[in-house]
Amino acid sequence: MDDARSDSEAGLRTDVKNCGKTGFITCREDGLKVEVKAGMKNKIRTDMEEDMKTDMTANAKVNMEVEIAGLKLKNPVLTASGTFGFGKEYSPFLDLNRLGAVVVKGLTLNPREGNPPPRIIETPAGLLNSIGLQNPGVDYFLEYILPELAAYDTNFIVNISGNTPEEYGLLAAKLSVPGVAALEVNISCPNVKAGGMAFGTDPEMAAEVVANVKANTRLPVIAKLSPNVTDIAAVASAVEKAGADAVSLINTLLGMAIDIKKRKPALANIMGGLSGPAVKPVALRMVWQTAEAVRVPVIGMGGIVTAEDALEFIFAGARAVAIGTGNFIDPRATISVIEGLEKYCLENGIEDINQLVGAARK
Amino acid sequence: MIYLVVKTSGMVLEHVEVANGIKYLKLEAPDIARSARPGQFVQVRCAAGCSPLLRKPFSIHEIDRANGTIGLLYEIKGHGTQMLSGSRAGESMEITGPSGNGFTLPGDPGEECNALLVGGGLGIAPLLPLAAELREKGHKTTVILGFNDASRLCRTEAFAREADRLIVTTVDGSSGEKGLVTDPMSGLMKREKINVIYACGPEPMLAAVARIAEVQRVKCEVSLEAYMACGVGACLGCVCRTKSIGGKPYARVCTEGPVFDSREVIWNG
Ligand SMILES: Cc1cc2nc3c(=O)[nH]c(=O)nc-3n(C[C@H](O)[C@H](O)[C@H](O)COP(=O)(O)OP(=O)(O)OC[C@H]3O[C@@H](n4cnc5c(N)ncnc54)[C@H](O)[C@@H]3O)c2cc1C
Ligand SMILES: Cc1cc2nc3c(=O)[nH]c(=O)nc-3n(C[C@H](O)[C@H](O)[C@H](O)COP(=O)(O)O)c2cc1C
Ligand code: FES
To answer: Is B77 near ligand 1, meaning CB less than 6 Å away?
Structure first.
């Protein structure tokens, strides 16, 4: 019994090192460190060991590295903003260091309370949300959250939202610090009144926001586009001209649901953003159109849960993909997508995943 | 405090209907049983594919550390629980947990405490492991379980084993005392000193329990429900309004809860 205990303790120590911390795992948003006790052998350990194994096979055979605006990513799999917190929330489930990048929750200049609950509801193969950009504000992030993220060896991309183009510039300036790998400019949030989606649905305003961000940072700038437009290519071209180093899409599609028992909208905010498998065909179509319109790299997202989903986006022209709602279905979805992509390459004699980008257009 | 949520696969050991539309599910899940505490929950993937999309949260109803099993008690409500109800012994399902903060057990060891546990409907689920742990620690427990009618009454034998005293109420009087689960509280609290109240159930019931606790100046913890997506504090979908938790108006039920000090909660209506 004693032997078994110390074995599992040793096993856990290794995990913890993989997480980037020794002896402690931070599992809570408040940063409370939790001592890992002997005898707590569990699934994390086996998953982590699996993580290491597949890593090695991958490095031996397939190049999974992609470059987005000068930023090197270990693989093309990112997390979608707002679905993965600041990353550490998911550290009990997976080794964050295996991800191409973690895109953190959208930040604003001042803390935001967000919308009243209920904020989420499931719809057929989809999820409606109206979080309303609840976040602790950029200063809190810089002081308390970013230093903790330094323990991980992955790219942290910060998603930003402002009420005015100037606010976006200010955010960009504040966030141009070591530890932030790139900025994702959210001009597409459907859940806030001022700014948000309004910027993303007008090519000129979208360009103005991006220009303001570019003028205030040397970090790579990714413009996150809204699908709630009739001509996605026009917005994509406008932000490219304004200096965006990459574009990501799609954000959520404006939608709603009604509770027939209460005869009331299901969300307190009435409308919300639709995500998940239900939006995938729309997202894929927009990625296709965008990849045709711009020369900068495209990051595709919207309903990706499996490696097969991710391949569709890559074939449509996405250099990288992000997983959002998929994390809710399976907290290890990112890892299975990475592994599935590697496997696809191995099985199809592809030495470099970059060869697959836009494959369906050729 | 140990807080270590894992993704694992739980094998169904037992799955039976214990009352009209209510099922008891026993899972082999040693990773979860080992660190689970009363008041925590798990999220169950009720079916493969996209329907339902989200993992559904259920309170941990039984913790058997020695045998590495947990029990759940759930009501068949909609599509997800309908799918779940079809799983049979020997099958496995994806679960994550233990999640959430859990109940706070009474302070100093050795100091005997008289605890009152109040559960309404499926809200009885998290109170069973709590009663077991309180008994183990040498505290005195009174459990009041409230049901709509006798057809929904379940698990009273399991509670009788763990509690010093068990009171059952039904709204229509078809079993136990007729009335609401809160009805026996005041009389009981007049007769003896209660040190702490734990409650879980529908929100109006919790608000009523909280009011009684406040009037009587007794510490009270309530377990809340909210629609959840991630279950780990990442999506901010599950928030409830609170007075001051962490200086923030909205607390996440999945991580700062589901158990809250009743004085922190802002009740709707
Ligand atoms: C912390 C916590 C503990 C819970 N413990 C229990 C328990 O021990 N026993 C029990 O029977 N029920 C429990 N519930 C409620 C349970 O999660 C819902 O009954 C279940 O999700 C219903 O799913 P469905 O698909 O069958 O129903 P649906 O028809 O989809 O929904 C019916 C109702 O269930 C709730 N619900 C649906 N999806 C979710 C979700 N993703 N997250 C939260 N609530 C949801 C909503 O109130 C909804 O109106 C708990 C909920 C929470 C938050
Ligand atoms: C709960 C939730 C919160 C989100 N928050 C943000 C956000 O803060 N900033 C942002 O740019 N996008 C946000 N999004 C959009 C996602 O990043 C993503 O663009 C969208 O969900 C589509 O991808 P998916 O189908 O994989 O989820 C959010 C989505 C969800 C579901
Ligand atoms: S369910 Fe995502 S934060 Fe609570």
So the answer is: yes
